[in-house]
Write a structure and sequence with these properties.
Number of strands: 7
Helix content: 40-55%
Mean pLDDT: 90
Order of helices and strands: EEEEEEHHEHHHHHHHHH
Distance between the termini: 11 Å
Low-confidence stretches: none
Structural class: alpha+beta
Length: 294
């Protein structure tokens, strides 16, 4: 599976349609690292094998086989895994459960979660009966996707899952710290700007100006939310974009470097090796082998 980000940093979710706004993606996180992104759809993750790491703005979680979590709408996050780590990613737009705009399903059941900006991630470790039932329902949904004509059953199961989610949220015995929404909006604006302009030379002043902040606040936003500098993120983003170009056999490594904002093929190769543990050429060969196996 290839993670596709549009120019605003939002993930373009493959397989999700207006007619049926739900999709299941099975991802091997030891092969595909999911870069920093966000999307309107909510997401339920179930870890099938191995161990994975989830990062949000300012926090890191680790999950293992049999565990999972819920990601609220428009939450900035990234994911990666150790060795062989397989996850089931269930993505659904609110219309999948809410139906038409301002329906009772949306206002009474969905909005209390979707509009709760202090609730970004809900861990599903199986520590409560509600969590155990919810994880079991997620496994059942996955099994259903192997059969035909299961759209109604899938929606019914997610209605049950959502009610279990509401019970679990209501049962929380502690106050979750409020998310710094202002800083998150700023970082998302800057990430969107980088996504639209990564192919050219960028300055710190330009990145900061895209969120209407100064250089210091720009640096603070990146450090507090992502634990890295704007230029470290820019290099990572350029490398991720270059991977897509490397899969095109008609483009040379030098052309892939030039089209993603690197000043030279040598510098590109150095950064690519540092971040990916291999050269661009080795990555290209590995990708071809994986495509042939599929």
């Amino acid at each position: 599976m290839e993670i596709r980000l549009n120019s605003s940093g939002l993930e373009d979710i493959e397989g999700l349609t207006v007619e049926y706004p739900y999709v299941l993606h099975r991802v091997d996180l030891s092969v595909v690292k999911i870069p920093w992104h966000w999307h309107e759809e909510v997401e339920f993750i179930y870890v099938r094998e191995g161990n994975m790491r989830l990062q949000t703005a300012g926090k890191t979680w680790k999950f293992q086989k049999g565990e999972g979590f819920f990601i609220n709408t428009n939450v900035l996050c990234s994911m990666d895994g150790e060795e062989k780590c397989l996850i089931d990613s269930h993505l659904l737009h609110k219309t999948f459960l809410g139906g038409h705009f301002k329906s009772i399903f949306e206002t009474k059941y969905l909005d209390p979660v979707l509009k709760n900006r202090s609730l970004e991630i809900l861990e599903l470790r199986g520590d409560t009966k509600e969590q155990q039932k919810l994880l079991a329902r997620l496994r059942e949904v996955t099994r259903l996707q192997e059969e035909k004509d299961t759209e109604f059953q899938t929606r019914n199961l997610f209605s049950e899952i959502w009610l279990l989610l509401l019970e679990e949220i209501a049962a929380l015995e502690y106050e979750r710290p409020a998310v710094d929404s202002v800083r998150q909006e700023r970082i998302q604006a800057m990430l969107a700007f980088i996504g639209q302009n990564y192919q050219r030379k960028l300055s710190l002043d330009e990145i900061a100006a895209s969120a209407h902040v100064g250089r210091r606040e720009c640096l603070r936003c990146f450090q507090s939310c992502m634990q890295k500098t704007p230029f470290a993120y820019l290099l990572e983003y350029r490398v991720e974009m270059s991977k897509k170009l490397l899969k095109n056999p008609k483009l040379s490594v030098m052309e892939a470097a030039a089209q993603t904002g690197f000043s030279s093929a040598a510098y590109y190769g150095k950064i690519f090796r540092r971040l990916c543990g291999m050269t661009p050429g080795e990555y290209r060969k590995q990708s071809r082998i994986q495509e042939l196996r599929v």
